[in-house]
Every structure is written in C-alpha cells, then in structure tokens.
Design a protein that fits this description.
Layout (H helix, E strand, L loop, with lengths): L2 H19 L19 H5 L10 E6 L38 H9 L6 E5 L5 E4 L4 H4 L2 H4 L2 E6 L6 H10 L11 H10 L9 E5 L3 H4 L19 E4 L3 H9 L6 H18 L10 H14 L1 H8 L8 E3 L2 E3 L3 H13 L8 E5 L18 H18 L17 E6 L3 E2 L11 E2 L3 E7 L8 E3 L1 E2 L5 E3 L3 H12 L20 H13 L3
Parallel strand pairs: 1-9, 1-10, 4-14, 5-6, 5-9
Antiparallel strand pairs: 2-3, 4-13, 7-8, 10-13, 11-12, 15-16
C-alpha cells in the first residue's frame, strides 16, 4: 500500500471511529432534514405511528426512589415472613404496629389493601398497593396504564438520576435530557418564540443537589435544544425578568448586541466558509431567546402559590406536588402554544424526609401516606374523567403521563422503619397516550429477592421516549445501537423498543 493510500485509509478509519463515538447512525437522514428524521422508510416504519403519538407528555419524576413493593408491583405471594426470617418486599411493612395495614385503615378506612392489576412476564399476578388509591378509584386510568420493570447498577442519587433522566450516565458527552431532544426536534420543525419543552424544579435544594440539572442538559446538541427550566417559587422574579423592565430601550439594546455578534462572526470567516464556532452559536441563540422573552410571559402565566395540603385528616404545609402539577398541566394545555414535553420533578407534600419525599430511609410508611398518596391524587385530579371535557385538564387521548424514578427501594427493611436505595429491581409507568387497554399491563418480572429478571434499562426507556414524539432514537446526539442490549441494527432496535415499551408490534 502506498504512503498516500495508507494515509487515506487511516483517515477514513479515524472518521468512522469518531462517528461511532459520537453515536452517529451509519445511515444518516436525508441532507437538510430536521434533526430526528428517520434515515429511511424502514426506520420511519419502526417508530410509533403518527396517529398514536401524544400531543404532549408529562414526565413526572418522583425524585428519591419510589418503592414498587407497595405501589405498582405488589406480589403478595413473595417474601412471606417465616419463623426464621422477617418478611420482605410487600411484607416488609405490611403488618404490625405502624405497618401499612394499620396506617391505611386509620387513614382511609379501606379494607382492600391490594387489587390485582395484571400478570408479569413470569406469569405472576401483580397487584396495586394502597398508596395508589387515587388511581385505583379510576378504572379509566388503570385501563391505560403500562408498568415496565427496570434495572441498572447505579445506587447513588447523583449518578442514578442523570442516567434515569437522560439514558446516558453522568459525565457522558451525550448526556442530554429528553426535554432537550424534544425541544430540538420541534424547534427545527415549528419555530416559535415560546419553548416546546420545559423542566420544572421544586424550590428544594435537597432535590436539585442530586444532579437534577441533568433534566435540562443538552449534551452534544446546539443551544437551540435548550428547554426552558423553571424553578417553582420564583415566578414573581421570573415575570419581572421576562418583562425586561431593566432596559430603557430593549429594541436598541438587542440591535446593538446583534451588531457586535455579526462583527465577531465576520472575524471567524475563512475565504470559503464560516469557521465552526459552537459557543458563539449558542450565545447567539440565547440572545435571540432573550429578545423573545415577553412572548413567554403569557404562556408561563401568573404565579401558583405554594399552599398547604392534607392527608389522613391532617394538615401539612407546602404541597409542592399540587404546585408543580398545576404549572405542568397549564403548560401542556395552553390554548395556543401548548408544551410538547414537561419534565416535572416532584417536591412532595410537607416537610422533606431525609433527602426527598421518596427517599424513605426512615418512616417509610408515614412518608408514603403523605407524599405518595398525595401525588397520585393530585395527578388523577388533573386528568379528565370519561365524559369530562375540561380543556384545562390532561386528556389521555392527547397526553401521555410517564411516572419516572431513579431507582426503587430495598425489598427488606433499613433499620426499624426505612428502606434503602435499590436499582436492582423497580418500575416506571406509562399512562395514556399510545397506551390503550390493548397495551395496558405489566412488562418484565422481579424475583422473590427483589432482583429484576426480565427488565428494561433507563437507556432503552429514554430512547423509546423519542419514539413517542416521532423522533428517530438513533439520530446524532441521541443514542447508538451499541447503547442498548437489543437489536443487531438501528431498525431492529427501534422495532424492539416499540414492541417492549409501547406494546405495539
């Protein structure tokens, strides 16, 4: 091989290697296509049909780790106590003083602690627990609920939460929240002053310190993909900032800044083409967004006060679940510029226990009665019932609700009253949107020791979320086939995602 041929060969090999590292699909979308376009007809057909894609998605994130054993995955035939060992899974806190049975009887007056829901992939009947009482009282919601078993290997919140929100681990250059993918997908198709995707944070440092900023990370996307992050409790300040009252003449200010950007960009031009300057591109996009800030005021709306709530006949301060879900619902149902995606990190009800309302290292039953019971009641109250046609509520024919958590809780007690972190077997949930009674049920299985034996990864889950909005999951800056454990090529992997996550062959 000649020296020039060898150089060409090495150059081509390096280019292919770099493309693989960047997550690029071997077959790109047609030139000039918006981001997220499927590369060919087979790839397009491997996604969700347009007719079943939701108009908007609420990704409700229960930060801290939702226990599956008394909510969405109760298997009462597993973990029974014996003379030699205490009970596990559902039986960890089912009975005894301060147990679930006693607490629910005192709180709700309910005798039916469990109701059967569906059969997992191992043939076991899975029940819904008492902390889902608000959903259990809505057969219309249960008929459109799909429970998906998950498993991964990240036990700390700080690494598990970015993995759960992005599908890529903390530190990966492709770590982008689903909100960023959705923002870019729609911004390149339907440009508008108002964002397409939002991320709502509670005013709790205990939640945000878990690397929750990953929810609006953009990874390798350009600045165009930045979703709108909103921290609840600061609406008054936000409204004042959006009005830009501090500028005597906003139009002249914007024109001056645009002039400086143009002059700087001219210095980056070569005789043939512009030199790539991503930071300048991002800055220019941020400036143009600031110029459109007044348009956002009407979408965000008036402040939603943080009010108190109640549970079991007791008053509680700071119902952050009600506050966050009110704002999320308002954004998704806006009459003219509804959001396509809202990630809402839930703050729970009342005082935060340990690190968040769901991080129940102690007083698990009490904390679940308070925050878990309440968040699903608040959610159910914001979804139209059959025959109801409230335009200010979510409609399961138009909206999809995802219940997300970074991991579950241990199938055995931590101390006398708590549960520890447990990524080895937990669940995430889909309600409405593409999920009809035909797709409702349980996907996967967890064994008697709490380990998932048939499960989905957070990466596959997030790739599937792109299918929900119509985006090709294997577009650059998103996912690569090698990130998943299924499918020999991108089209096969997309079909498997559609089948497993959405139940559509």
């Amino acid at each position: 091989m000649s020296r020039s041929s060898r150089r060409a060969f090495l150059g081509q090999s390096a280019a292919l290697a770099l493309a693989g590292c960047a997550g690029a699909d071997p077959e790109d979308a047609p030139p000039g296509s918006p981001w997220g376009t499927a590369p060919n007809a087979d790839a397009a057909a491997a996604g969700l049909p347009e007719a079943v894609r939701p108009a908007g998605v609420l990704d409700l994130v229960l930060v801290g780790g939702l226990a599956a054993w008394d909510t969405f995955y109760v298997a009462p035939d597993l973990g029974l106590p014996t003379d030699e060992a205490p009970g596990t899974l559902w039986w960890s806190y089912a009975e005894g003083p301060g147990g679930v049975a006693e607490a629910v009887a005192d709180c709700l007056g309910e005798d039916d602690l469990l109701v059967p829901f569906g059969t997992d992939s191992g043939g076991r009947t899975i029940h819904l627990g008492p902390f889902l009482m608000a959903l259990r009282r809505r057969p219309d919601l249960l008929a459109r609920t799909r429970i998906v078993v998950h498993r991964h290997d990240q036990a700390p919140h700080q690494t598990a939460l970015p993995l759960s929100l992005c599908g890529h681990g903390f530190g990966s250059p492709r770590m982008a929240g689903t909100a960023a993918h959705v923002e870019r997908y729609w911004a390149e198709r339907e440009p508008r002053p108002e964002p397409h995707a939002y991320v709502l944070f509670p005013d709790l440092p205990e939640v945000t310190e878990f690397n929750a900023d990953a929810a609006h990370a953009i990874g390798q996307h350009p600045g165009l993909a930045r979703p709108m992050p909103l921290q609840l409790g600061f609406f008054e300040r936000l409204q004042a900032q959006l009005a830009r009252d501090g500028l005597a003449d906003p139009d002249r200010h914007d024109a001056a800044v645009a002039g400086y950007i143009t002059r700087y960009r001219q210095r980056l031009r070569s005789p043939e083409r512009d030199v790539r300057a991503r930071l300048l591109d991002d800055f220019e996009f941020a400036r143009s967004t600031l110029a459109r800030a007044p348009d956002l005021r009407g979408v965000v709306g008036d402040p939603v006060a943080l009010a108190g709530g109640s549970y079991c006949g007791r008053l509680a301060e700071n119902d952050r679940s009600a506050q966050g879900l009110t704002v999320a619902t308002r954004l998704l149902t806006h009459p003219t510029t509804p959001a396509r995606w809202v990630t809402a990190l839930d703050g729970g009800l009342g005082a935060v226990h340990v690190n968040s309302s769901y991080d129940t290292h102690g007083n698990h039953v009490e904390a679940s009665l308070r925050s878990t019971l309440n968040v699903f009641e608040q959610l159910a109250n914001r979804i139209n019932e059959p025959g109801e046609d409230d335009a200010d509520k979510l409609d399961l024919d138009r909206h999809l609700v995802c219940v997300t958590t970074e991991f579950g809780r241990t199938p055995f007690r931590e101390g006398d009253t708590g549960l520890d972190h447990w990524p080895e077997g937990y669940v995430q949930v889909l309600i409405g949107g593409p999920i009809t009674p035909d797709e409702a049920g349980v996907v996967g299985a967890i064994d008697g020791e709490g380990f998932a034996t048939d499960y989905t990864s957070p990466t596959a889950w997030r790739a599937a979320m792109l299918q929900a909005v119509g985006a090709w999951p294997f577009a650059d800056a998103a996912f690569d086939v090698g990130d998943l454990d299924e499918g020999d090529d991108a089209v096969a992997a997309a079909r498997l995602l559609r089948s497993r996550i959405w139940g559509r062959s």
